[in-house]
Amino acid sequence: MRKLTVVVVATLLILALTAIPTAQIQPYDLLLRNGRIVDGTGSPWYRGDIAIRGDTIARIAPTITEPAARVIDLGGQVIAPGFIDIHTHARRGIFDVPTADNYIRQGVTTVMEGPDGSSPVPLAPFLARLDALPKSINIGSFIGQGSIRSAVIGDVDRKPTAKELDKMRTLVEQGMKDGAFGLSTGLFYVPGTFTPTAEVIELAKVAARYGGMHESHMRDEASSVVESVKETIAIGEQGGLPTHVSHHKIIGVGNWGRSVDTLRLIDEARVRGVDVTIDQYPYTASSTGIQAALFPAWAQEGGREQVLKRLKDPSLRAKIKTESVRLIRNERGGGDPKNVVIARCEWDTSLAGKSLADVARLRGMDPTIENAAEAALWLVEQGGCQGIFHAISEEDLERILRHPATMIARTARFRCSGRRTRTLAATEPSPVCWQCTCARRRQSHSKKQCARCPAFRPSVSACWTVDYCDRA
Ligand SMILES: [Zn+2]
Question: Which CATH number describes the domain made up of 17-79?
């Protein structure tokens, strides 16, 4: 953990500790004594005390002897400015859990939303809602290239017309004017994967005009990871803006060790004057949808209905399965069905924690890679699941972690300490909610959740239950 602490501290992005003249009225509200102070300027830590009045640091000195309402002896623990997490999915939970406990308790005081090419479009209404929300954390957002492309031409594999490209430029410009910190891309995902690099660069140039940066979930983090890093650098270099490799990792046993090459490319670019940075989560597993990870991009074009149609066509199904087998064997699957673990299936919560090998067995099949691919196809047909993929080496992880341009990000969301479901009282006004019977229990779901299940029949007449976050 010591190594991790040092890296986190070395990559602090904000400076909140500012020495303030010492002549002050007493007493202080809080005195933090005997800390190791890391002030965020990049200078080495030093021992000292910090006195706080209200929400302001009133004094920093080797020893502060004046009284304070509350004194905490830190016993040499680190005091640092709040951390920034540059890659989060905060918008899914901030309105539920505005206290952002799981971030604040780890010292993260600023989070960035809109990663992976996905953000609200337009951004302004979302930012206005955030502004109006009393919350414990600062939130900024990127404007998502994938969301913009989807809004303008749909999730299809084709180039935009000149007019459509112009419309995308305008939406990026609007996002930047609304307050975006830059352009995010998710070239791995649909529809980002259908975007040629030149098109991204055109949009990056717009973000650059407004001082924005580019943040990428790269096109490939497995066999083409080196090419993807080159592409991310090119977007920054030709777009004229800082560029960022998100959650940098090397997926797939056959690709392990390639962080040597990716980091060399990044070092060379930085020497050329390209502002390339990296973030990383310190785990040897990644998490995304089973479909996104184990289906080829062509099979995902056009949305869920199209995916289901292809799975019903025997020859297309066979083609998808062949690709799935390859992806389990050489890429996200980590070469073994046991390495793919289900995090969550909205249509059957009992599958959480089971591996693809378990699902194959549950369906009466031996846990071979072929049968695991079949199980993956079945999971997607049923409604899709979020997966955890154990396919990263500790050695690459540590190499990336040691790089001076690496910061920590978690790709996480706000969690409520206890999510509960309660039955609505007869007297309570029933919210407009959707019901579907794909889940084991009949429950109210969001329209989007319902739309994922094959037995979806829209019904908004009554609610049995509502989900809520119990923060107590
Ligand atoms: Zn991502």
Answer: 2.30.40.10
